[in-house]
Amino acid sequence: MNNIIIGGAWPYANGSLHIGHIAALLPGDVLARYYRAKGARVFYVSGSDCHGTPIVIRAAQENRTPAEISETYHKEFCEVFQTLGFSYDLYAKTSDEEHKAFVRRFHEKIYQSEYAEERCVRQAYCPHCKKPLTDRLVVGQCPRCGEKTRGDQCDVCGEVLAADEVVKPRCAECGAVVAFSDSKQIFLKISALEPQLRAYLEAHPYWRRNAAAFTKRYLDEGLRDRAITRDLDWGIDVPKTGYEDKKIYIWAENVLGYLSCVSRLCEAQSIPFFDVYGKDADTRSFYVHGKDNIPFHTIILPSLLLAHGGDIRLPDDIVSSEYLTLEGKRISTSKNWAIWAKEIAAQYDPDAIRYFFLANGPEKRDADFSAREFRTQVNSELVGAWGNFVNRTLAFAVKYFARELPRADIPKALRNEINALYDSVGEKIERGALKDAIDEIFEAVRRANKYYDAKQPWKTRKEDSLKCRKTIGVCTYLILNLAVLLRPFLPFSSEKLFHWLGASNEWKEQLPTVNTISSDCEILFHTVE
Fold first, then answer.
1. Is the pLDDT of residue 171 over 80?
2. Would you state the pLDDT for residue 148?
3. Cβ atoms < 10 Å from Cβ of 326
4. pLDDT tens for residues 47-59?
5. CB environment 168-196: b (16+ within 10 A), e (fewer)
6. Could you tell me the pTM of the whole model?
7. Rounded-to-integer distance, Cα 394 and Cα 400, Å
């Protein structure tokens, strides 16, 4: 595959990231690092979602502008992602002029299609606050499940809503009963795209179960047309005469951020955009997010692309996680029941954080985070298995061989095993089975420790020096290859090993190329207290 597009979900820039965001987004970085090692041309993109009602609400609460709020959290997001090793080729924001210009051009073409039409709709209005209300500022009961909901989406059942569908609607800010008046908006006729969207779903049987199930449910229940403009003050201007007082609805522009980012990267590298994002391009695309974002990537984004003309590639792989809970309870930023990403990133080794959420994250089912489990898992596997194998091998060479790395003829059976491991782990990464992939690598780590114990180099050092040197040589070979295999998951520790031992970032079997261990070799991981 020549081109690989990896899009990580765009977090709202109205508050700090929490560990649920990290757990959902980490698979994107693993995919990007893996495909770069495979030699593919990777476009790993994401950004901060800087428009929308949550940011306007936060700005009003803090007596600041929406631009100030979004910029504050955008900078925080960038620092967190950098600390945790997210290797984005471009991490942008929806308030960037490049993104806004791309979206306006994209919408101009949609408005000319048969899938866009003007309609008169009921606009929510608060008589007490004396202002129009976006869907998110309307609260009430979900018409599907009966639980409390906002007017844009029910967090309980996942139903995508409009404000006038909410039962007993009230203003989220003051609690007043909501009134409705008529307003002219542009609608995307998603219902007319149902045959194409159903065929699209059926053509992707390998999607994760939650993605396939959510998408099928929306199709079976009947797709509804959605407004792609809104009466808003903060957002991207609608490129159509008569809509000067409106903005493009956030869901109809933030998912286009993947395209606007790739467009910017293509322009910087003088690559034609459609050579990467065209429907017939030699490309595979991955979209990485939590399960609450599934319909926006399997229904909304494909609908926008089809309405645009169908010449842009629809998403290939939907890498959608389940929920991460905290100490058995659902994470809630409003109730301050969360572990903030910036705090955990500042406190722990980034590879320890990455390891835990990739090996224990909500990949196939909801997962729970507890400080006790984090400490136990990291100390047992990352420190006790992988770190122990590396440290005991390299410390032995430093102490008894004066930093020399003994060369050894690697048994053919072992080389075959390692080459098979590259193939197997790579196949798992490509289909989004990251937990299975890292588990398989750590099975190999445990076998490596057993090999070391069985060969007893601490004894053969005196009894059979050639056998001892061969043991350390074979273990060095194993460390090199395990470091390459683990680099997409644990980039910081793998980079240290690459430096100490001379490995290269290529997804293939490695043989030692240096004669001595780097003088700055140290303990790879420290125990989590």
1. yes
2. 93
3. 18
4. 999 998 889 888 9
5. ebbbbbeeeebeeeebebbbbbbebbeee
6. 0.92
7. 10
CA atoms 166, 172, 178, 180: torsion sign:
negative
Which of 113, 110, 112, 71 is closest to 92 using CA atoms? 71
75, two tokens = 């900078």
Domain ranges of the chain: 3-109+248-346, 114-230, 370-501
Taking domain 370-501, whether its CATH number is 1.10.730.10 is answered by yes
* Dist. CA 149–CA 381, nearest whole Å: 41
Contacts of 272 (CB under 8 A, 6+ apart): 266
Closest CA to 8 of 22, 436, 19: 22
Separation CA 7–CA 38 (nearest Å): 18
On the 0-12 / 13-18 / 19+ scale of CB atoms within 10 A, 237 is: middle
As a whole number of angstroms, the distance between CA 344 and CA 348 comes to 6
Mean pLDDT for all residues in the chain = 95
**If you average pLDDT over residues 299-315, what whole number do you get?**
97
Question: Are the CB atoms for 233 and 248 separated by under 8 Å?
Answer: no
